[in-house]
Design goal:
Distance between the termini: 36 Å
Helix content: 25-40%
Shape: elongated
Radius of gyration: 22 Å
Structural class: alpha/beta
Length: 367
């Protein structure tokens, strides 16, 4: 039988290019690092990251051990976009380009309009832009993507893409050992708020709520993190705390997650516009009760009353009532933490989240 001598072309492996403008690695970059560090999946083996920051580039090289290129751009957003665009158009045809920062979303329409379908374009949305103009601009850019991946239902609704975005929770690394600490019933209730000490995080709400309790119960508030955009804010918080009956606020600075969660009983999320909240999942895994507002994406990690508790967003009185309930019931705290850890393991464990994210990208590349 005659056989054709024509060779069947080998299927080219898709190159995944992640584009980040983060000045330093925040929660989203840490989640991506976990995904790319998993050397068992093909996504990790065929990926690289383009960064504008030397600190972020160094993080991906050392933590994810993935190929990382530092893009030298001039000052300003336009210069960053132009520099990134020039690098992206040199990527192999068929590459899957994942834009990982809100400020770089304009790259998606730029590439789509100038190069058509030469690349597969993904908008990975893990933040919620403030202000109508920023929301409209971000939503407009996302419409040019072949796929949008959203970190939470809240973010999808915020950018009017609930029907089109794939919601993929990000991985929460399991603790190396059981970090749950048994505490005496008469020990003070140690409350923590973790993250950037900025106004948008509403740390002042937590200070007022906990401050209203210090006259009638033994309670402490530990603030972990450092000022990012507003260097005056921590000083304002300290002045606010002095208005109450006794000292109760400890500005603990930046610490490693394991150390933080060994020092607190309750994690409070004060920002009602939190896109998701990596610290929520970390606290749940480490046996710490989570209290979050009934708005934003933080409450999507748990079922209120079963694996965490919610309070009315923006209400210090509502938050104070929930904290009072927790302070008076060790049994409630134990039940919530047990259920919380099981929920995170099932829904946001590393294997589950990495597989979901990989599938979302691979299905986009295959179209």
């Amino acid at each position: 039988m005659w056989k054709s001598s024509k060779k069947i072309p080998e299927q080219r492996q898709t190159v995944y290019v992640f584009v980040s403008a983060a000045k330093e690695p925040w929660g989203a970059e840490r989640s991506l690092s976990i995904i790319l560090h998993d050397r068992q999946n093909e996504l990790a083996k065929s990926s690289k990251v383009l960064c504008l920051s030397e600190k972020t580039a160094s993080f991906f090289k050392t933590e994810a051990m993935v190929r990382t290129d530092l893009i030298n751009a001039g000052s300003g957003r336009i210069a960053a976009l132009v520099s990134m665009y020039k690098n992206l158009i040199r990527q192999p045809s068929g590459s899957c380009i994942v834009v990982f920062s809100l400020q770089l979303l304009p790259l998606i329409p730029m590439l789509r309009l100038s190069h058509g379908n030469k690349f597969r374009l993904v908008a990975d949305i893990h933040d919620a832009p403030r202000g109508w103009m920023d929301r409209l601009a971000s939503a407009g850019c996302v419409r040019f993507a072949h796929r949008a991946i959203s970190i939470s239902k809240y973010v999808s609704k915020h950018l009017w893409m609930s029907s089109s975005a794939v919601i993929v929770p990000r991985p929460i690394e399991l603790p190396a050992s059981n970090c749950c600490v048994e505490r005496a019933d008469d020990a003070p209730l140690n409350i923590g708020i973790v993250g950037r000490v900025d106004r948008e995080k509403r740390v002042d709400l937590a200070v007022r709520a906990v401050g209203s309790l210090v006259a009638r119960m033994d309670v402490r508030l530990n603030v972990y993190g450092a000022a990012h955009l507003d260097s005056d804010y921590p000083a304002e918080l300290q002045q606010m705390a002095l208005q109450f009956d006794k000292p109760f606020v400890n500005f603990a600075g930046v610490k490693q997650p394991v150390e933080i969660y060994s020092e607190i009983d309750v994690l409070v999320v004060a920002n009602e516009n939190e896109p998701s909240g990596r610290t929520v999942g970390e606290a749940m895994m480490h046996g710490v009760v989570v209290v979050a507002p009934d708005a934003g994406g933080a409450g999507e990690f748990f079922e209120s009353g079963v694996s965490g508790l919610t309070y009315r967003a923006g209400s210090e009185e509502s938050l104070a009532r929930v904290l009072t309930e927790l302070a008076g019931s060790p049994d409630l705290r134990n039940r919530l933490t047990k259920n919380a850890k099981n929920k995170i393991e099932l829904e946001r464990g590393t294997d589950v989240a990495v597989t979901a994210y990989r599938n979302a990208l691979e299905s986009t590349a295959a179209k």
